[in-house]
Amino acid sequence: MNWETVIGLEVHVQLSTRSKLFSGTATQFGAEPNTQASIYDLALPGTLPVMNREALRMAVRFGLAIDAEIGRKSVFDRKNYFYPDLPKGYQVSQLHHPTVGRGSLTITLEDGSERVIGVTRAHMEEDAGKSLHEDFHGMTGIDLNRAGTPLLEIVSEPELRNAKEAVAYLKKLHSIIRYLDISDGNMAQGSMRCDANVSIRRQGDPELGTRTEIKNINSFRFVEKAINYEVMRQREILEDGGRIIQETRLYDSDRDETRSMRSKEVANDYRYFPEPDLLPVVIDDAYIEAVRAELPELPDQKRERFVADFGLSPYDAGVLVSSREMAEYFEQVVAICGDAKLSANWVTVELLGLLNRNNWEFVDSPISARRLGDLIARIKDNTISGKIAKTVFEAMIEDQAEVDAIIEKQGLKQVTDSGEIEQLIDAVIAGNPDQVQQFRDGKEAVFGYLVGQAMRLSRGKANPAQVNQILRDKLK
Amino acid sequence: MLAKTIAELSRALRGGELSSVELTRAYLDRIERLNPDLNAYITVCGEQALAQAEDADRRLAAGDTSPVCGIPLAHKDIFCTEGVTTSCGSRMLANFVSPYDATVVEKFNAAGAVTLGKTNMDEFAMGSSNETSYFGPVKNPWDTGRVPGGSSGGSAAAVAADLCAMATGTDTGGSIRQPAAFCGVTGLKPSYGRVSRWGMIAFASSLDQAGPICKSAQDAAIMLNVMAGLDERDSTSVDLTVPDYTASLDQSLEGLRIGIPRQHFAEGLNADVEQAIRAALQEFEKLGATLVDIDLPNNELSISAYYVVAPAEASANLSRFDGVRYGYRCDNPLDLEDMYKRTRSEGFGDEVKRRILVGTYALSAGFYDAYYRKAQQIRRLIKQDFLDAFKQVDVIVGPTSPHAAFQLGAKSDPVAMYLEDIYTIAVNLAGLPAISIPSGQSNGLPVGMHIVAGDFEEARLLNVAHQFQRATDWHSRKPSLSGEDAK
To answer: B319 and A45: CB-CB below 8 Å?
Structure first.
């Protein structure tokens, strides 16, 4: 039987404001428990919220980046429920009038095709604190440092059709928020959290199946695995004639499975009502245009530019712009060496490989964009060959010296002196009489072997083009 | 001396006839003598008050011109006061020592006023008789068998019994004006947003407003000068220039148009009270005002709308009292749910629990439209009634309460208690300013007159009230208290 998967994502993005959404408290990650909790964050009686204007600006930035309707009048509501790390007993959120309305973003699939995915809305809300269940001998510790941190909850339409699309959507969102500089998007630290609503239905069925919600998946890889597991689980149940229960499930990455957390059938009634301590947020066209004017170049625009201006393939350009840091790094490299295609190769293959192997971010890279640009420039001006460049690149990881100094120090400079190369080739011809004869008898393939011998004799430093030329001349 | 107004005391302090320390001591002595019976104060801060008085005396000697410098006041125990227990009349906060000052408290401190202590109140300001306080009821100084009104009953009683020169109160549905009426003092509820709510423990956030309780309209003007103004910490406080409220007190009432709402002189109004108010209206006519009959057709809906909106907001506002971070926590909780249930069952009194239940119900899925949304629509109708009325008249006058102070324990039915605020509640729903001033007596008990003005027209209210007080002496009458020395 053919099943269609329907996925909608709810992504919580922690906005990187310096202070909290409704209090002036700092939002730094990793401080000692409860040292970043003001009297408002602790919900002391008599305290009141004051909205963080920077958080609003960030939400509007995001809305404009996904071409969304911007709420001219957004309203905060109280979402009521009891939990020890929710100090006020309600969360201030936005129900009916979010700051960001309907928008969309384009994802690129592995085969290079594109799909437009609808974003239903994005609303602002405050984060809760953390409950720490260990180390308190039968009690629970509460850390309110995170309480009140501004979140943007981005809700997609149920338009994603498989786990790979979900990951592509999530990566695109991640890339956009990084370009906008509105969040660090760090999934491991929880500054980007993903809940996935998953259901399946028979191909062609207009009705949606019963969905389950998988909570708090904290990496791209786990999103894919959690959805795949959940789809398989639902399919098995339905094919056995069972029924899906609408519920919240938790993904356990150790066992690679989802588990029931609580049933939505006994769902909380959040008793939303407008937050009387805050006025509606009214913004006008002038405000929106001012925010629009500050928008940076976004990944889609950058990709088009890379294709048009640099002649890169859409695929390469897509890889480069997927991260703002990589795109910026790449542009610096091109500016120095002047060769976009070589730069694209070096950045996406050698450098990215190096960073991934070591789990480094671009900021951690031991090889700066300037030094990589210098290195490529030395390939271009024939100081070194592409192959030697890889040796230099390896040396640059440990050695922070300039590229030229490293080439000099290691004696890797390319030999372009024809006399020197002729000597090498004479030695090769003298040392390989059989092969020389075979070549002269018409066995063209042996030529490559002889070039290789010459290169080896030069320890890779001879200019390969010259070696080719001179060897061919001498064998005539 | 202790019965004097702020204006009179301030003159004496600055003239050197009296020091703030002497004045403060005198009030503290009187509190010690009379408070055990009246129960107007929950907390008295003697040492701190004397230290503040010493500071004030230094400031006065240095020529400080603040009219409240050195004047002893009492804060309703709903205002957070740094280092002092702030109980809100509840067992839930009986152990809560605030680490910060409310804006209102901060402003009085900055102006040099001396805080004598914290006054008793209905628990979380929910009540109209002061009988819901965890700390026991306040007695009305005019008749200690009667209630002082509520919820700011402690403040009103303290002012009436001269246990302070002035006091702060808060008003969500009549909680300044009704006790002011019952205790024969002046109480002003400013327009919503005029006074900062920062540090004022929330009951119903869209209705709560702080205001002065004192001995004359002139004193109310002096206090409002200190209290009013924009506060960046309260997003609902308004950015409107604060006039000098004392500047317009002396304006003539010639040509003033006074609206008399038919609905406030209808069934349920005690005959003595009606007579007192009618007599007061004649007084206004003598001062040059004209009386115009008006309608507030939706007034009768105000109690119903209020008892949806206020409990709904309260149900959320009071969720923070969960035993987790501060305040009361039950003994030996078995688990989280047990802790929540027992902490809140034991920490809150019956009236508070009743309103949390009502509010939770009104906001529940499937009931929101029928209750909360409908109540907000009624709120707009009520506001429109006032806006229409103010096209014809400058102020609206009527009784503050249908009758004078009732006996302790007389109203055991919650709905009967809710009807206490029939004339005052619409004003909160509309966000308007209103004042209650003494304007007669019924069987030896004070009767309060209610005056309402348009948005942010506190200056006009105070002018009207002051002119009435210049022509009459109801506001100067004092209860005779047992145990009182003849000063």
So the answer is: no
Q: Where are chain B's structural domains?
A: 6-256+392-476
Q: What is the pLDDT of residue A81?
A: 95
Give me the residue label for tokens 């429109």: B384
Say if pTM beats, i.e. exceeds, 0.80: yes
Which residue reads 């996904």 in tokens?
A66
Instruction: Choose the mutation target among A48, A90, A269 for the interface with B, i.e. most B CBs under 10 Å.
Output: A48
The reply to whether residue B98 touches residue A276, judged by beta carbons under 8 angstroms, is no
Task: Kindly write down the DSSP assignment for every residue of A198-218, as one continuous string.
Answer: EEEEETT-SSPPP-EEEEEE-
> Region B359-367: what's the mean pLDDT?
94
A–B: how many Cβ contacts below 8 A? 101
Q: Which residue has the tokens 């920077």?
A: A54
Q: What was the ipTM of the complex prediction? A: 0.96
Residue A262: the pLDDT is 67
Q: A88 at the B interface (CB within 8 A)?
A: yes
Helix A464-475 and helix A446-457: axis angle, to 10°? 120
Distance CA B313, CA A409 (A): 75
A89 contacts in chain B (CB < 8 Å): 316, 318-320, 322
Check: CB of residue B8 under 8 Å from CB of residue B67.
no
Of the candidates B233, B365, B372, which has its C-beta nearest A50's C-beta? Answer: B233
The C-alpha torsion from A442 through A445 and A448 to A454, rounded to 10°, is -50
Q: B6-256+392-476 has which CATH code?
A: 3.90.1300.10
**Residues A73-86: pLDDT tens digits?**
999 999 999 999 99
Q: Which residues contact B215 (CB under 8 A, 6 or more apart)?
A: B3, B4, B5, B6, B159, B165, B166, B185, B186, B475
